[in-house]
Design goal:
The complex is a heterodimer. By secondary structure, chain A is mainly α. Chain A has a domain at 98-297: MetI-like (MetI-like fold, Orthogonal Bundle), CATH 1.10.3720.10. Helices cover 75% and strands 0% of the residues of chain A. Chain A has twelve helices and no strands. The longest helix of chain A is centred in the last third of the chain and has 33 residues, at 208-240. Chain A is globular, with a radius of gyration of 23 Å. Chain B is α/β, with parallel strands linked by helices. Chain B has nine helices and ten strands. In chain B, a hairpin with a 2-residue loop joins strand 1 (13-26) and strand 2. Classes of the chains: A mainly alpha, B alpha/beta. At the A-B interface, helix 2, helix 9 and helix 10 of A face strand 6 and helix 6 of B.
């Protein structure tokens, strides 16, 4: 799908009319949401959310016991591993108490790549969405590069950046870049044309429009892109850390595989899952703050 | 067409529309939305452009606003030709077009804050016009928290705060319920009297036009053009139940519908 094709004018109009149509009902929703959410419903939400993970744990436990496999550890075995990984004192091997250093290295690389992607993707997306000449020049190239899986870049990135963390950051950057860029372009192109007219008749024109209209109006889409980008960044860290770095959660998972330490592999997976979840919640909090003017975009 | 009353006749010409035409290139061939429109507006006048859909009234307004280019003729404000939107001509849209990420206060202050005006002055201006439309208590609300009538008040205050000479209004009360509409009509007349603005108001309601305007410009479709102008000399505040009002309303309605009846269906041009 090309950038050109991401938004059809009809869809554009449909979105615009839909938002107009839903506007009158919005105040009522605001009153019930956001503020004053009491403890009861919140507990209920938490309870509902943990039912499935607990069920999966139980299923895992039952299946391992039932099949008698030695390839997959019991949940309790992984819990012990996780404790040892975090605090040490149980196995006292190379991985005991090493969670902080692996975690910190991975977080640095994920957010390094992610912030670079946002730093390049958002301004570039704003300009591609707004300047037809730039779009005509860059759209075909970007559409050509986009279908190439990030993992396919692995050999080249190792040649460019050598064995080590730089290569991992580059892969994370590539993975986070496209969702951020494409969502920003989409956001800019779906800005209601009326808003540009309104800004124009109020005397706001040229480069001023970027800060006054384009950026805030595209912000909901930009946050969508950031959330997608952040999740891709966590997905790609494992691939990125296959490039021969000694530390990092991805490296730990790869080591676990070569050493046949499945408990270590699952520990790494769970930590990445939880961290990705927490980082997504942080982005949602940020998004709710910056989009407090838009009840539709509250997550 | 020439205004005989001394007070308005003496006022300078603020807007001059000469032989204005607009042809759209639609996918199924060119569509003529407006042909040969001439209009002279004096400072402080309240003009209503009245007509059915497809008569080019919105097109005419949007060309005056500078949002669209005419394919023929010219528009001049104080003798200077219009080429694009500008702060001298403020537009109030039917769908409000407020900036949803700005509060009431910030929306009203948008124009001044994008010119090199000290923040203190901007705040003072904003406060003044927020009070003028009665929204001081809602300063920190976002547009989605306002009713339609309140949104339109913000939109009007936003243009007033920007110190526009001409207030262009494109069916501004079309999306409002009848009660809110008549309240806003009254407020608008009050604002117009106190600020001495020039207003060009597009509507398809004969009653609204006769209620508000000094002069009703009747437009017809296929292609859109100005049919005639009707002076409304009724004293204000106008009484919609009075005999004079209704006689005038009937007269305008007759002029408006005399073309629709026989010749051809209302052309589907890009009026809205």
């Amino acid at each position: 799908m090309s950038l050109q094709g991401t938004v059809s004018p009809q869809l554009d109009r449909a979105v615009a009319t839909a938002s107009v149509a839903t506007a009158p009902t919005a105040p009522a929703r605001v009153a019930t949401r956001g503020r004053g959410r009491s403890l009861g419903p919140r507990l209920r939400a938490v309870a509902l959310a943990v039912v499935v993970p607990l069920g999966l744990l139980l299923l895992w436990d039952v299946l391992v016991r039932w099949t008698g496999t030695r390839l997959v550890p019991l949940p309790s075995g992984v819990a012990v591993m996780m404790w040892d990984f975090a605090f040490g004192g149980i196995y006292d091997d190379a991985y005991s108490g090493s969670l902080p250093i692996h975690f910190w290295k991975s977080v640095q690389r994920v957010y390094g790549g992610f912030f670079c992607a946002a730093l390049v993707g958002i301004p570039l997306g704003l300009m591609i969405g707004r300047i037809p000449l730039l779009r005509a020049m860059l759209d075909p190239t970007l559409s050509l590069l986009r279908p190439i899986p990030v993992t396919a870049w692995l050999p080249l990135s190792m040649i460019f950046f050598g064995l080590g963390p730089k290569s991992a950051v580059f892969l994370v950057f590539l993975g986070a870049f496209y969702p951020i860029l494409l969502n920003t372009v989409f956001g800019v192109k779906s800005v209601d044309a009326r808003l540009f007219e309104a800004a124009g008749m109020l005397g706001c024109r040229g480069p001023q429009l970027f800060r006054a209209v384009v950026l805030p109006a595209a912000l909901p889409s930009i946050f969508n892109g950031l959330r997608l980008g952040a999740s891709f960044a966590w997905i790609l860290i494992v691939v990125g850390e296959m490039t021969g770095v000694p530390e990092g959660l991805g490296a730990v998972i790869m080591d676990g595989r070569t050493l046949s330490r499945t408990d270590l592999v699952i520990t790494g997976m769970i930590i990445i899952g939880v961290t990705g979840f927490v980082s997504d919640r942080l982005l949602v909090l940020l998004s709710n703050y910056f989009l407090r003017w838009s009840p539709q975009h509250h997550a | 067409m020439l205004d005989p009353t001394a007070s308005r006749g003496a006022a300078p010409v603020i807007l001059e529309v000469r032989d204005l035409g607009k042809v759209y290139d639609a996918s199924n061939g060119p569509v003529e939305a407006l042909r040969g429109a001439n209009l002279t507006v004096r400072k402080g006048e309240f003009i209503c452009l009245l007509g059915a859909s497809g008569c080019g009234k919105s097109t005419l307004l949007r060309i005056v606003a500078g949002f669209e280019q005419a394919t023929q003729g010219s528009v001049a404000v104080y003798g200077c030709e219009v080429d694009g939107p500008g702060p001298d001509r403020g537009m109030v849209f039917q769908d409000y077009a407020l900036f949803p990420w700005l509060t009431v206060e910030q929306n009203i202050g948008f124009g001044p804050s994008h010119r090199r005006i000290a923040p203190k002055e901007v705040a003072k201006l904003t406060e003044k016009f927020m009070a003028m439309v009665g929204l001081t208590a809602f300063a920190d609300r976002y547009p989605h928290q306002l009713s339609g009538g309140m949104k339109q008040r913000v939109a009007i205050a936003r243009v007033l705060a920007n110190d526009a000479d001409i207030l262009l209004m494109d069916e501004p009360f079309g999306a409002l319920d009848a009660l809110t509409r008549s309240a806003l009509q009254e407020e608008l007349i009050e604002l117009w009297r106190t600020t001495k603005l020039t207003v060009i108001f597009v509507t398809h309601s004969v009653e609204e036009a006769v209620l508000l305007a000094d002069r009703v410009v009747v437009m017809t479709a296929g292609p859109g053009r100005i049919d005639c102008e009707v002076e409304v000399d009724l004293p204000r505040p106008r009484d919609v139940a009075s005999v004079e009002f209704n006689a005038l309303r009937r007269d305008v309605t007759r002029r408006l519908t005399s073309h629709i009846g026989g010749s051809r269906p209302v052309a589907a041009t890009a009026d809205s």
